[in-house]
Amino acid sequence: GAEPTGEGRTVAVAHPNIALVKYWGKRDERLVLPFTDSLSLTLDVFPTTTSVRLAPAAGSDTVVMDGAPARGEQLRRVTAFLDLVRERAGRRERAVVDTRNTVPVGAGLASSASGFAALALAAAAVYGLPTEPRALSRLARRGSGSAARSVFGGFVVWHAGPVDALDPDAASYAEPLGDAYIDAALVAVVLEAGPKAVSSREAMRRTVATSPRFPEWVAASRADLTRMRAALRAGDLETVGGIAERNAIGMHAAMEAASPPVRYLTDASATALGTVHELRREGVGAWATMDAGPNVKVLCAAADAERVAARMATVPGARVVVARRGPGATLRTEG
Ligand code: 2P0
User: What class of enzyme is it (predicted)?
Assistant: First the structure.
């Protein structure tokens, strides 16, 4: 484990990631095991900074999120995660967690990915669990699936692991792609910063249980992953972008076919998508991806980022943020 910093606090920083081949649907809810492998890019914007310190005299955990006490489902998820860490570490002390996001929580900009990656690292360090990246990725996965990927920087693949694995928990982890030869940017088009109506957890559950399009989504996703890995190796941004855009549309089609339907995309999202298509018609390499919210992220070459951002800023109500390849989760040494 790492040395605690400051007043017995350990501080970790992690960044969000955006999937180019999406994770949508769990085959095991308790262990957070997905149906499919997914592939993402960790960003250099919107970090989450989380400090954890032990509170041996306390009877319960204290969780502060962006300066206010966490409650309800958020508090329950953090406490459940800390219970798992304590169980593995054979420890009983409660903790004080203070977490600060720089992105609106619950708005489809992956705050749970950066959040649980940072919490996993800080908590593992404080309670004396291994902080080696693969173990950390597996641990972060239990907090939130996409957090398994934010442990690493750059392009990352999260393995679902074989369905018949003897130890499925050990077989599902993320790792960085050492052979992705693309200098990409992601232009985040923030259309709405409010919390979402349906959590991605619930939306996934509903899609798996009721969408007749879920099986075709799983099959398409497998093919997308194989082809995308080859395109990343070949440095072929056009193929990467085309796969990413179709993969995202396929995920949204699967959830819109659920009952009741899950619809995250709005008229503003459609307008932003139209602008991306316009850019392509003009010969600019730009491809859209959308997650569990109305915001649109535009993949392009790093060299085109400012041009793409300027055009996306013409979408009414849009706030645009340019992101590039970001780092994995790190412990911050203070002072
Ligand atoms: C992804 N998303 O691959 C997909 C695409 C949103 C759309 O992972 O239930 O917060 O905590 O495992 O990771 C968002 O869901 O879900 C997500 P849980 P998570 O990025």
Answer: lyase
Question: Residue 55 C-alpha to ligand 1 middle, in angstroms?
Answer: 31
Measured by CA distance, the residue closest to atom 8 of ligand 1 is: 146
Strand order in the sheet with 68-69: 68-69, 62-65, 94-101, 48-55, 10-14, 330-332
CA dist., res. 291 & res. 144, Å (int): 15
Domains of the chain (ranges, CATH numbers): 10-180 (3.30.230.10), 184-324 (3.30.70.890)
pLDDT in tens, 207-262: 999 999 999 999 999 999 999 999 999 999 999 999 999 999 999 999 999 999 99
Token pair listed for 67: 């300066």
Cα(180) to ligand 1 centroid in Å equals: 23
Atom of ligand 1 nearest to the CA of 147: 13
Q: Whose CA is nearest to atom 4 of ligand 1?
A: 23
pLDDT of residue 104: 60
pTM attached to this predicted model: 0.95
Q: Which tens digits make up the pLDDT trace of 142-183?
A: 999 999 999 999 999 999 999 999 999 999 999 999 999 999
Supply the ipTM of this predicted assembly. Answer: 0.98
With a CB cutoff of 8 Å and minimum separation 6, the contacts of 202 are none
CB of 307 closer than 6 A to ligand 1? no
Say yes or no: CB of residue 292 within 6 Å of ligand 1.
Answer: yes
> Rounded to a whole number, what is the distance in angstroms from the first to the last CA of the chain?
19
